[in-house]
Amino acid sequence: MTLVLTADATLPESKQSVGSLAAVVGTITFSGSYVSGGDTLDLQAVFLRSGMGRVFGIEGSFRGNVAEYDETNKKLKLYSAANTELTAAAYNAALTASPVPVIIWGR
């Protein structure tokens, strides 16, 4: 239930821009349990500090899962390979073993 986003401080302001798009590169640390409907992760706060306003995508190696960011509710949802949302349960060891590298896209 606890997700912690750490922006990569080695990049200038942890942001790379491509035209009107920006990418924040970093890691997400997973701990606790997944909640049906997604776990809270306010990515907009990262983009507001970066001068960008809207988050529209997240990419990463979610170790056998597919992630989707629900900007309206500020939730990170995880899906299995069968495109089924994970059920409420403890995060698996693959996710909690080490931080997951991510790229978060916004404008």
- Please give the largest β-sheet: 5 strands, antiparallel
> Which geometry do the CA atoms define?
globular
Give me the count of strands.
10
Helix count equals 2
Content-based structural category: mainly beta
Low-pLDDT regions: none
Task: Provide an overview of this structure.
The protein has one domain (2-106). Strands 1, 2, 3, 6 and 10 form a 5-stranded antiparallel beta sheet that branches. A 3-stranded antiparallel beta sheet has the order 5-8-7, with no helix packed on it. A two-stranded antiparallel sheet has the order 4-9. It has 107 residues and is mainly β. Strand 2 and strand 3 (21-31) form a beta hairpin. The protein has 2 helices and 10 strands; from the N terminus they run βββββαββββαβ.
In short:
By secondary structure, this protein is mostly beta strands.
Structural topology:
Blueprint: E1 2-7, E2 16-18, E3 21-31, E4 33-34, E5 39-40, H1 44-49, E6 55-60, E7 66-70, E8 75-79, E9 89-90, H2 93-96, E10 100-106
Antiparallel strand pairs: 1-3, 2-3, 3-10, 4-9, 5-8, 6-10, 7-8
Features:
mainly beta, globular, 2 helices, 107 residues, five-stranded antiparallel β-sheet
